[in-house]
Write a structure and sequence with these properties.
This protein is of the alpha/beta class. The chain has one domain (41-66, 81-231): 3-Layer(aba) Sandwich (Rossmann fold). It is 34% helix and 28% strand. The protein has 7 helices and 10 strands. The chain has helices at residues 54-61, 84-94, 110-120, 125-138, 154-166, 184-201, 212-215, and strands at 10-23, 26-39, 43-47, 69-74, 77-78, 95-98, 172-176, 204-208, 220-225, 228-231. Helix 3 (110-120) crosses helix 4, helix 4 packs across helix 5 and helix 5 packs parallel to helix 6. The radius of gyration is 18 Å and the shape is globular. The model has no long low-confidence stretch (mean pLDDT 93). Bound molecules: adenosine-5'-triphosphate. Adenosine-5'-triphosphate binds at residues 21, 23, 28, 30, 48, 50-56. It holds the Pfam family ABC_tran. Its EC number is 7.6.2.-.
Length: 234
């Protein structure tokens, strides 16, 4: 059987990870024996051609989808061995998510949206909103607390999504093309913010992107092709 020990500072790891999709008579192998260790504060980019399986891998690492084979370890704990409730709890506490499209709730304010992981985790409203306010101020949105997503610019919405991802002080934030939907200057300022927060909070980042400029700002660039992950020397 596989060895599931991870380094002491591991925030997220996978071992012998495989993902197959059955498509009619065919079995597609999208991830073929992926092994990865992400340490505290580490920044990793995952790049690769369209359809290579980057989002699939990110979903496995985030516990949003189940591997066909292999294990994902969040802060050293094998999430497949947990019941749904414990897995959701661990995911809520240890991981944050940022997507290309912000996925903010339209009927809630920036303050409420960024507080959502805390409220879902059972935190008291006053504590959740104080933390949310602090984070929104940190991402430069102290003057937009009561705005709803439709009343915010694209860059502002992505900043709210980042504040929301950080609400629970997660060990690691997983990001899928976080600035892919933003114009050049806005993308630059959101990327600079992510790097600042990574340094300040020691939150690890795993970023899936086609943007090589963003990828090169990470500590490691990993390239996914033919189901395999390789250190890229871009
Ligand atoms: N539920 C599914 N059933 C069958 N095939 C799937 C399923 N989900 C994903 N795939 C296939 O897996 C492959 C990888 O998809 P994925 O979205 O992970 O790629 P990606 O590298 O993130 O691509 P892009 O850069 O275009 O976003 C694709 O060929 C896709 O069609």
């Amino acid at each position: 059987m596989s060895n599931l020990s991870v380094p002491a500072d591991s925030v997220l790891a996978c071992r012998d990870l495989h993902k197959f999709f059955v498509q009619g008579p065919e079995q597609l192998t999208i991830l073929n024996d992926i092994n990865l260790d992400i340490g505290r504060g580490e920044r990793i980019a995952i790049v690769g051609p369209s359809g290579a399986g980057k989002t699939t891998l990110l979903h496995m690492l985030g516990g949003l989808d189940t591997p066909s084979e292999g294990s994902v370890l969040v802060s050293g704990k094998d999430i497949a061995k947990m019941n749904d409730r414990d897995r959701s709890r661990l995911r809520n506490r240890e991981l944050g998510f940022v997507y290309q499209f912000h996925h903010l709730l339209a009927e809630f304010s920036a303050l409420e949206n960024a507080a959502m992981p805390l409220l879902i985790g059972g935190e008291k409203r006053a504590v959740a909103f104080a933390r949310s306010r602090e984070l929104l101020e940190r991402v430069g949105l102290g003057h937009r607390l009561e705005h709803r997503p439709a009343q915010l610019s694209g860059g502002e919405r992505q900043r709210v999504a980042i504040a929301r991802a950080l609400a629970n002080s997660p060990a690691c934030v997983l990001l899928d093309e976080p600035t892919g939907n933003l114009d050049g200057d806005t993308a630059e300022s959101v990327q600079a913010l992510l790097l600042e927060l990574n340094r300040e909070l020691q939150t690890s980042l795993v970023i899936v992107t086609h943007d090589m400029r963003l990828a090169r700002r990470m500590d490691r660039v990993l390239s996914l092709a033919d189901g395999q992950l390789q250190e890229s020397v871009a």
